[in-house]
Specification:
This protein is of the alpha/beta class. The protein is built from 13 helices and twelve strands. Helix 10 (about 220-230) links the parallel strand 8 and strand 9 (about 240-245). It is elongated, with a radius of gyration of 25 Å.
Length: about 325
């Protein structure tokens, strides 16, 4: 059985090496996205018979059907799902290749693509970047800000080289390498007038629940942790006045509205205070938010640029936070 499996894989690899083209990869991804040969033909400005022929070529290479055809469109088979996923990764690697070549032509010898969550200290990231550049010289740094789930998906698809995000359960990320960086502490961000009032007495969570809250979207790690904070003190969680990931909006709305408040990590609250007329109050409560971690793909060695970035990031986190 093992010999048969190996032979099938070798035969498929031989066909792919000699016949697979970038247009085949693009077609696989597009069919998964649009679900129809006719829609892809319209988007690409080509004929449907041309795409049908291309799909036939791919399936001949793979030795099996990759999509099931129906009147409503096409749907990936189990093997097709694998093909689409691998095609997306290969296209991402090709994009990285092109980016690296373009960077070199412009005088840069290195490039780094990193993903970060919204509620991460911009000062930490900028200091890490500055120190890394001092160590290894100029390089092109690309940073994508998004939710944990989307960033980890981009990491698996080779669109990112590393992700700084919340530490997820081992079952969800067992295919990735994870290093805990630091634990964040909570802080209330308010208008300076409101902070002066709050600072005169212990926090009144019942009164806080009646204020206008800016909260992350429902279901996010930070959004859930804020609600848990109220449950810890037996208080009904507030209904958000505004739901947003944007720290810019949080800062600007609070500096204009003394009735508005947000609960964010203390390091992020410090960043906000440097960009907007806001202040913060530390909260002496257990913080149910998962720690911040660095994720990379298993089994892939770091480039010299990545290795320097990781060393610098870990050193700065050790300086500034209590690691758990």
């Amino acid at each position: 059985m093992q010999d048969r499996l190996t032979q099938i894989a070798l035969d498929t690899l031989d066909r792919m090496r000699s016949r697979l083209k970038a247009r085949h990869l693009n077609l696989l991804v597009a069919l998964d996205q649009y679900g129809s040969l006719s829609r892809v033909a319209k988007e690409w400005g080509v004929t449907q018979p041309y795409l049908t022929q291309s799909l036939t070529e791919i399936e001949a290479m793979m030795g099996t059907a990759l999509f099931t055809r129906a009147r409503g469109g096409v749907t990936p088979t189990p093997v097709g799902h694998i093909a689409v996923s691998r095609a997306a990764r290969l296209l991402a690697d090709l994009q990285d290749w092109a980016n690296d070549m373009a960077a070199t032509q412009l005088g840069y010898s290195k490039r780094l693509n990193i993903g970060v969550i919204h509620y991460l200290s911009g000062q930490l990231l900028c200091d890490t970047l500055t120190r890394t550049r001092e160590q290894i010289g100029p390089f092109v740094f690309s940073v994508e800000e998004d939710t944990s789930a989307r960033l980890l998906a981009a990491l698996r698809e080779h669109r990112l080289e590393a992700v700084v995000t919340r530490a997820w359960g081992a079952e969800q990320v067992r295919d990735l390498h994870c290093e805990i960086l630091f634990h964040q502490r909570p802080a209330l961000v308010c208008h300076p007038k409101t902070v002066r009032q709050l600072g005169k007495r212990p926090l009144d969570w019942h009164a806080l629940a009646g204020m206008d809250w800016l909260l992350p979207p429902a279901g996010t790690s930070l959004g859930v942790s804020v609600l848990d904070m109220f449950l810890q003190v037996d208080e009904l969680p507030p209904v958000p006045a505004i739901e947003t990931h944007s720290l810019k909006i949080v800062g600007r709305m609070i500096e204009r509205n003394p009735s508005m408040v947000a609960l964010v990590p203390a390091d992020v609250a410090h960043d906000l205070s440097t960009r907007a007329q806001v202040a913060s109050v530390a909260c002496d409560l257990d913080w149910p938010l998962p720690p911040v971690a660095l994720y990379r793909r298993q089994g892939e060695p770091d480039s010299p640029t990545m290795a320097s970035f990781v060393r610098t990031l870990k050193a700065l986190c050790k300086e500034r936070f209590e690691t758990g």
